[in-house]
## 1
Amino acid sequence: PRYRAIPSPDGSRIAYVGPADSGPQLWVKERDRYRASPLPGTAGATVFTFSPDGQWIAFVVGRQLRKLPVAGGSAVTLADTVSSVAGGTGVAWLDAGTIVFTQLGGHALRRVPDRGGISSVVLADSAYVRFPTGLPHGRGVLFTRCTTVCTIEVVDLRSGKTHQLLTDATFAQYVATGHVVYVRADGGMFAVPFDLGSLTLSGPSVPVMDSVSVIDGSYPLMAVSSSGT
């Protein structure tokens, strides 16, 4: 599989891309149920994430970013210039009411209000940028920047400034313990203390686990919920 299974913020369900008669679509599995259920209206979805309250899923079909209630309903289109590279380059739903996504072409991050509206550029780069993940209170966004090697960087959404945090890493996400967890190309997963005030690392990395599947050396199949799952 080239797609991550993503847990809801409270860890009560997971969503993933699975097969359907018309091609891939999103499936949702509740923690207390053995079988998953298809999510109607998500045919062709590749990139996806939960809303901070776990009640919605934002997903990409073609070049469009859409959102849909997990309980079912009609999808709403939010943007139409989104990268939909096979396997996904990431969508981050921030708790400040915006969604950050990789722009078509892979050289910029944009954000759009989660209620809909005009999107704006968060950052533009000559390198490929992917896997945006949000920091609490809309403070900033972690993302992966890839040239000959991949690095983890952070963009401050207040100042617009960007700086590098880690080298030789493919994906990073902030967790509620005050750490950033990240995965290397060799499948090692590490945690490092992170200061939300200065958006800088504040201690040494420690290993968390190994053998995380990393497709093509750059696409790790892991995700962490805000509850720690």
## 2
Amino acid sequence: MTLRHLHIDGESRSAADLKKTGPHRYWEDKSTDLWCVAYAFDQEEPKLWFPGDPVPRKIEWHIEDDGPVYAWNVAFERCMWKARLGPKYGWPVPKERQFNCTMSEALIMNLPGALDKAGPAIGSAITKDKDGHRLMLQMSKPRKLRKNEPCPKCGDRLRECFCGPYWHEDPEKLRRLAEYCKQDVRTEQAIADFVLPMSASEKRIFHLDARINERGVFIDKDLCIASQKIVDKTVAKIDAQIQRITLGEV
């Protein structure tokens, strides 16, 4: 069994808002896809993969050998792998026990949970690319057609074409985004080399938490709807009483 560590980071685009949906709903959205993936083994220089490239053979071997996968906030990469890299691009999907989170290891050591802050906190000269971060935010969301710009898909010159979403697909921007992705991996590598690995008990809790989030929580929808109706009626009754008592002032 290999003992090498695979470090990975993906850059994506979507009409879904990651902050509102969380990683599971985000990667379930049909508009969500990948710009690129940066990866490295141990402390090697990161390499790039783009959609349409073959699956890296070293990654295939690593996953098949039950090798560990590390990422910063690995829940995002776990969902990315299970929803896109595996079913759409043919990557072998790691088992749950193979995923490891450098961010969680940093938090256990009372280090910041943000990648751009954790690097400086450990005194690393390798830090997150702040200019690239702004570009990532731009390219992760759809753009509007510019004035008189033909639709890239159907050629129509309608301001509100129904072929979208449209993306920032400038080659230079994509090159710059890929370099940003590589720098994220370098930063995560530096932090991974500094932090202590999880203890056996911490790792059991980490993987239990992941299974809970994967499974979700059962909700009695009928009970929730009935409860909301009771709340609405009660609030209306209380509002009417307050209005009467205050002679309409409240």
## 3
Amino acid sequence: PAKVAAIDLQFFPEGGSLISGLRSNVAFRAVNASGKGVDLNGVVLDSRNDTVALFKPHKFGMGSFELTPIAGHSYRAVILDDRGQPLTYKLPEILESGYVLKVKDSTENLLSVTISHNLQTTTAQGVYLFIHARNIVSVATQYHLARNHAVVGISRNALQDGISHITLFDSELNPVCERLYFLPVKNKLQVDIRSDQRE
């Protein structure tokens, strides 16, 4: 019989974890045995076999989908191999409580950071947002989540070129979410080459 190509399918919840009742972005990466991205169509099923999300890579076997998980349910992704047979992959464990961090470009100069939690509390929850790149701090500020939710605008001009670490800390300064964000280099290196030989 012909050998079926193996597919490695991994899932990466934005911010680090899937939290019960909170809508999350889930990135995924699908590669073959040689590490090359593969094209596929997939579905996410809950423990009752209901379809809760569809997904397909955008490019290089990578993409994302949104999911609102519920504690007590298990979730699995199903794709078809090159023979049309189903392959099943487990999604990360669902945590009963915690924080979700979403980051996206809002405008050309503004970064939108959405912070949500499902903690049982009657008072405003204080959180700290810390952004740094190469040991240079860009943002360090505190926010209060009065209704379990906040949307924060961050100027892209405040960030360093390259990869920034966006970390969310709870009121006791425990890190609860982290996200990487890439800002393209603004000032490209200008090189002027001249010969010291006279023609």
## 4
Amino acid sequence: SLERGENLKPISPVLTKPDVSGNVPYGTITTIAESRQTFGILYAGTDDGRIHMTPDGGFTWKEIGNYLPRHLWCSRIETSHFKDGRVYMSLTGYRNDDFRTYLYKSEDFGKTWESIKTNLPDESVNVIREDPVNEDILYVGTDMGVFVSLNRGQSWEVLQNGIPISPAHDLVIHPRDSDLVVGTHGR
């Protein structure tokens, strides 16, 4: 809808490929991200590990995660505040007892992906956010807490500072106050 939810129209074919493995039925879009620079560029990630992109507001879609690990839950897609084509993505396999860290960056609209896991411990990643003021700063919420990178994912540091060890499921940088707001599960 271009009218704030009025007159909704479908803009994609089915972007999932349902499977019966895991502890929940697959077949759901779990994250959607819109380009901050170009109208109509959208990314969608699913709970069966498929990542799609449309450059034209949904007229055409292409799968852009074909050579990434398969059958993982796409927990978050984050588009850059600074560069069109730069996109971050986290996957999680915890529903299949896979607790490795899956964290990626693309500079070319998802044509190629680079792992930015570097020194993060192996644990499920729930969310990645790019700082809206400094493009080198990234924040990650995992099942054990919050991490920060000051060099766009080349290395990571723990950012607990009084936050109890608990799953961080969402992160938001407040647009007015520039505070990092952390949504935890179980605390």
